Amino acid sequence: MTSREFAEDHPSLSEAEAERLVLAHGHDPAEARDDLGAAFTTTADLLGWLGY
Description:
The chain is an all-alpha fold. The chain contains four helices and no strands. The longest helix has 10 residues, at about 15-25.
């Protein structure tokens, strides 16, 4: 499954899911929240922030 397919199947994440994803990639969730704002839980935006 590609990141695009994942985002299409799961267009949004819970706060906890988004945080776990950011942490799993070695980043600080607070930094991601600051950069993305409300889009922190939008899967496509978060995956883009992570470089996918």
